[in-house]
Amino acid sequence: MAIAAVGVVSPAYWYLTRATGVMSLLLLTCVVALGVANAARLTTSSWPRFLTDGVHRRASMLALAFLAIHIITTVLDTFVSISLFDAVIPFIGSYRPFWLGLGAAAFDMLLAVWISSLLRARVGARTWRSLHWLAYACWPVAVLHSIGTGTDVHQGWMFAVYVVCVAVLIVALWVRLRAGAYMDSVGRTAVGAAEARGR
Amino acid sequence: MRTRAQASRDAALRRLTRVNRSLAAAAVVGVGVLTDIIAQTPVHHSHATYASVASAPGAGSTARSPAPARQHTRPQIQTNGGGSSTGSSSGSSSAVVSAPAPAPQPAPAPVVAVSGGS
Fold this sequence. Notes:
heterodimer, A: mainly alpha, 9 helices, about 80% helix, disordered N terminus, B: mainly alpha, rod-shaped, disordered C terminus
């Protein structure tokens, strides 16, 4: 009853929704960057690859946890009626359906990535890998959701958050593409050597 | 008997635990800091957007009733002090103070409890 009263009159849910949304975006950026570092096999002698993998997993769990709080507080905030279905199923809500739907789509994609990672041994490496590409799609969708429906878009600190996230992701994509090109060249060299040996 | 590889692996695992704990703590503290920043940030224009959407007859058909109740400008502080209180108010507080009579509000009861929010 006290919680319901707070939900009616207090802006605490609204503040928490915005704060957890920003934190989820930061953590999602961190997760994508760590995943790229893991896929590119970036290691040092003092930082083995399993450390990157472990932090990547923990950061993704934290991102999902804060995303869950973001959704729950959005639903609990009674200022605008957003149901749990509106927050989870894309583009069905009455309040800003497109921008809110982008957030729901990003959440669904992240959920698919997480569940496929939990069931990695069952679904197989190929399915897991193809589903994991959704993480790359999830990030820009989440940013668009934030820009489209975020309250703090015009604040200076939020602009700084966007700049940091975009810069981190551009560097991560550059590293990923470079690592992919390197892997391709190594693979091509190996195939060429094998063919030469076969002749 | 522990080999050198085992020792380095254990050290890396300890580092992983430490990094993970620091990450979680930083995230929680970060949310607290962000909430504090957000609570102190005046966002009147989005309020208007929220209020207009919530009170719109067609679009917000599922919006619940207490739409105009969310005011972050703390009306209690602005009514008792003439000019000495809260330097954060530039234009909106004068507008609130200069308003001679409050508009007829149908349900003013829950607004009293707002001030404990932030």
